[in-house]
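Below sits my pick:
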Amino acid sequence: MALACAAPLLAQTADPGSIWSFPTTPDQPQTGDGTAQLDMLPIDKERLLIDAKLKSLAEQNLMTARINDISSYSNDTVMGLSAILSESDDPCTQAVRAAVYLDGHLAEADWTEVGKGYLDRPVTLALETVLIFVTPDVPGQLSDVTSSVRALSNSLNVVSKVLNGYDAYKNANKHYAETQLIRDGVATNEIVQQAARGNWTEADLTRERQALLVSAQSKAEEMLALQTRISDGLKEVDTRYEEAVQIAKYELEREVARLSGNNPDSPMNSLLNLNDYPAATRAYDNKIDAAGAVRAQEHQEVVERSYQRMREAQFATEKALAQVEALARYSAPLARGECSKIRRDGPIAKPTTKPDAVSEVLKLPDDKLMIFLKSIGLTPSADLMNCVCRSAGYGSSGTSQYYHPDTIGTYDKRYSCQQPGPPCIVAGFGCSRYPLPSDKDIWTNCGKSAGQDVPAAINQAVKARQQQD
C-alpha cells in the first residue's frame, strides 16, 4: 500500500478538528473528475493517524517510547494504543501512557533486544546472594522505594556460587528468557495502565506499592528457602560420594594386601607400590569414576527439583519491584497532576506540595518516632501499636500482625525476626518485619479504641513549637 499517497488523501477527507476521525474514503476505488482515490484498510488509516499523533507529542518534547516508530508494532498493539490515546485529552498523559505501552511491547519492535534473551541468557538463580541480601536489612530497605528497587533486583540476578560448574546450571540456563528491559517494560505497562484506568488516587497507589513490596519480600524469602534446600541436598550428595570414595579406598588396600601376602592391617602395606597391582588400581579407578558419575547426576537432580520454582520466584520478585518503581515514577505524578515532571530515567519526581507535619513525623523510623512521642509526653500503649500494625495491611489471610521491634527468640542475624528491625511483625508463613504505616487515618482509628490520639498530639506539639518560633 502506498502510504505516501495516503497522507494527502487523509488531509482532504478527514475531519480537521479531530485526529481520530476517519476519512470518508469509499470501500472501493472510485474515479471522479479524472482522479483515482486510494482504498485503505481501517488498520492502515489507524496507523497513519497514530503516527501523526506520536510525532505531534514528540514535537512538544513529551515522553516518547524507546522505539516510537508505529510501523514496528503489530496490528493488535496498534489498536490497543489507539484505545489508550482515546482515554485522555491531555497531551502529556497521552504521551506517557503511549510510551509506557509501546515499551511494554518492545519485543515486537527491537529484535536486537529480543536476541539478547537467547545469547546472553540472563536468567540466573540467586542463591547465596539472596541469603546475604535478605538478611538482615530487607524489611528496612523495602520500605524505601527509591533505594530498594534496584538493589534487590540486581542481587537476584547474580549467579550462585553453589551452582557454578554443575551441568544442572548449564542445562537450566539453556532456557530462553526475555531480557530485563523487556520484562520490566511488560510489568510497567501492566500496572501503569491499570492505575490510569482505575483512576487510582495517591492513597490507592501507596496501598498497592505496599502490597507489591510484601509480595517481593515473600518471593525473595521463598528463594532463600529453595536455596537452603538445594545447598542441603548438594551436601548430602557430596557426603554419599565421599563415603563411596572411602569404601573404594578401603577395598583397594585390602585387595593389595591380599595380593602381596601381607596381613590387611599391617603397617607395611603403606610401603607397597600400587603400580605393581594394575588390576586392583583399575578396579579402584572404575569405582571412583562411577561414584563421580552418580554424584554429577544427583547434583543435577537436586538443582532441577527446585530450579523452576526458583526461576518463577525470581521473575515474580523482579516484576513486583518493577511495578513498585513504575507506580512511583509514572502513576503517582499522573495522580498528582504533575505529568510534566515524569522522566523514564533519573530520579523519581517528588511531590511539589509538601505533606503536612503530622504525616512527616509518622514517617520517622520507629525508634525516632518513639523518642519524639516521648518528648511530647506520649507513650503509645501496646494495644495501640498492635492495632496500627494490624491495620497496615501487611501479610495475607492466615497470618498474624503485631508490634515487636526487638529480637524474637534467640538472636540470629540470618533471620529478620530474630534481630531488631522494623517493628510490624507478620507471622504465620515464616516471619517478616515491616515499617510502621504513616497513614494518619490508621493512627486515628486505632487511637479511638486505645484512648490515645497520636495525630492530634503531634499536631498540637508542632503548633506549639511553631508559635514559640
Notes: The chain has 18 helices and five strands. Confidence is low (pLDDT under 50) at residues 1-37, 118-176. The longest strand covers residues 400-403.
